[in-house]
Fold this protein.
Amino acid sequence: MNASLAPAWLAVPRDANDLAPAVWPHSACRDADGVLTIGGVAATALRDDFGTPLYVVDEGELRARARRVRDAFQDAAATRGTEARVYYAGKAFLSAEVARWVTEEGLNLDVCTGGELAVALAAGVDPVRIGFHGNNKSRVELEAAVDARVGTVIVDSVTEVERLAAVAAARGIRQPVLIRVNSGVHAETHDFLATAHEDQKFGFALADAPEIAALVRAQPGLMLVGVHCHIGSQIFGIDGFRESAARIVALHAELSEIDPLPILNLGGGFGIAYTSVDDPDPIEALADGIVAAVAAQCAARGIPIPRLAFEPGRYIAGPAGVTLYEVGTVKPVRVSDEATRIYVSVDGGMSDNARHALYDAQYSARLASRSSTAEPTLTRIVGRHCESGDIVVDAEYLPGDVAEDDLLAVPATGAYCYSLASSYNHVPRPAVVAVRDGRARVIVHRETIADLLARDAGLTPTSEGNRCLY
Ligand code: LLP
């Protein structure tokens, strides 16, 4: 009945209960009753204990992915006689527990605001393992970073160089600094024309980088240790990274003629599967290809390979997360005389997953509280917000008997869902629960209506927080 509404990429599944390995955590399976379990914990038990909507993160999966990406880059670097350090990009999903997990797995941490820095420090992350990003770091944030003795600050503007130099000099500190450079390669489009892509807020143009390097080197409070470049996010193939590496090594070589630069940071952006049709290159292939490209460029210029750094976020956190929702209404909507679309409304929406609204992102979904032999039926999974663009999963085949009170699970929601969440329509943000070895524990508390009311000065006149600067 609904075939005409299905997007071309979406095939009718042979079994609408299956859990495609590319998009689900390795631990995900169905128990004897057909209930989805993650990390050994049944979705129905998670609902009973913690309520819905619920972000569920498989700790074992997140840690395993952190180790895998660390090993991929370290092995690729060791083969070429250098070292690689992997920074977890906390913007993908940061909490104190996550900061501890990734650092226990040997990673460093990339933060991009004073708030993320505060989480990292409060979690006990060794400051020397922190890289501090951001295109508009305030003086207060820079003071906090320098006072904490963060390992590196990645500078993004002349204003920031001046601010940071003053902050460090006032404290008698030499702050290690990387310069963020826009290589002109924005891999989303796979278009390597530099001039087409310079019009965005991050970093310095390649052509300006030598002048900025000289400015940094002239500051007694700063120590230039390298260049940084990040070409974009959710990238599946090697081409953009390779082209960017070539351009950035050329700059590195030029700047190293004046004084050696120990570090080359090539950012993150490694893609993941959100649906079963997504097919990113394995991280080992990407790591090896990128490091090989750097090595070849260095060899061609007769310079040693610098120590490398990478900043994956989504790759580590994304596939470790699953969001659980409870179904409310199931409504056939007549789209035309020929077609009816089944709208399945859940108890969350764009406030806990803004990615369809923001990026047209596609997701998949499965019944979680049971399996079903009912015929797969095309559905659109929508939220509870007062907005027609409040779509969680644009198109998915669910068993045709999906009904009120069923649980649905949306995989690959571990990155940029909790971190982009809002309380739109006064819908409180969900809790985050970590599952591992059959146990579940809250790692981020659920926001409550009381939390929201407490911020409303018409109801709660006094607050300690209004003067907080970041
Ligand atoms: N390093 C830098 C300097 C970055 O700007 C980013 C992401 C990363 C590392 C990590 O990128 P990843 O490995 O996670 O792709 N909200 C968007 C993604 C924004 C990414 C911003 N920067 C989304 O939901 O897709």
In short: The two ends are 53 Å apart (CA to CA).
